[in-house]
Design a protein that fits this description.
about 270 residues; about 80% helix
């Protein structure tokens, strides 16, 4: 695990060019979402479909770049990695679209199950949707809402927060190996997901769980520091760069870990044909 962590840091620093597509996509998608807000239902549906196509193109090219940097660590020109982006889009665009669809269905299913379970076990908090949406507008409204709740409502609110956090964490965990499986073993989005689950819950389960917790905790700490110290413009810019670097490192770490343990020739679990 530690050797894989060190190697992933080295790969991230060597192939920092991986941050370029991520930053460009973040900027372009933010602008696209900003200008797509508003309009009727049909225009919103079209905007959502176009954004999904953009996301599929980005992920297929970006993940392919990550795969190549892991399989060819001795590349003399790290910046040449960018040439694999269009190749990845051409080869993995449709499989990645299928992956996005599957992740959407999995997430909606788990959230729905969590909601029904929460209504049975925890119960309704007693806050209208209109009041809740108004409280989300700014911190003062949220503070006023929290002060107006009684002890039982606060207990239910905390229980719902823990339930939602647990549901999202479990969702992230069961899709952690989805993309690496698709790019190292099986292009079919349905087969690759079941293969990823098989590897996730293999005899290295606790090591896989440790990987997830490491990523989860470090990202939580980085997010907390960003929220606390990000009020200053310069510091906010520094933390924005750190977040981009962390996202690249996290993707490289997951792909590299999966490749070393489940895909490359000589791994103890599976072998890449």
């Amino acid at each position: 695990m530690l050797n894989c962590l060190k190697e992933s840091f080295k790969l991230t620093n060597k192939y920092i060019i991986l941050a370029t597509p991520l930053i460009l996509f973040s900027l372009l998608s933010s602008l696209y979402i900003l200008f797509s807000l508003g309009g009727n239902l049909i225009s919103l549906i079209i905007a959502f479909i176009l954004f999904t196509l953009m996301l599929s193109a980005f992920l297929s090219g970006w993940f392919f770049m990550i795969r190549e940097c892991i399989k060819k660590t001795d590349n003399e020109d790290p910046n040449a990695l960018i040439k694999f982006f269009p190749e990845g889009v051409g080869e993995y665009f449709l499989p990645v679209m299928g992956m996005i669809f599957c992740v959407f269905i999995i997430s909606c299913s788990l959230i729905s199950l969590s909601y029904f379970a929460g209504m049975k076990v925890i119960g309704d908090i007693g806050i209208s949707t209109e009041t809740l949406s108004k409280a989300m507008e700014n911190f003062e409204n949220l503070k006023a809402l929290l002060l107006s709740l009684n002890e039982q409502q606060l207990f239910k609110l905390n229980a719902w927060n823990f339930l939602l956090l647990g549901t999202m964490s479990f969702t992230y965990f069961i899709i952690m190996f989805y993309a690496p499986t698709m790019f190292f073993k099986e292009k079919n989005p349905f087969k690759s997901y079941f293969l990823s689950l098989k590897d996730l819950f293999s005899r290295k389960f606790f090591q896989n769980l440790l990987l997830f917790l490491g990523l989860y905790i470090t990202y939580f700490i980085l997010s907390a520091f960003t929220a606390i110290f990000g009020m200053n413009v310069f510091i906010h810019f520094i933390f924005t760069l750190l977040n981009f670097y962390y996202l690249v490192f996290a993707a490289v770490w997951i792909f590299n870990y999966y490749y070393r343990n489940y895909a490359c020739i000589g791994s103890k679990i599976d072998k890449l044909c």
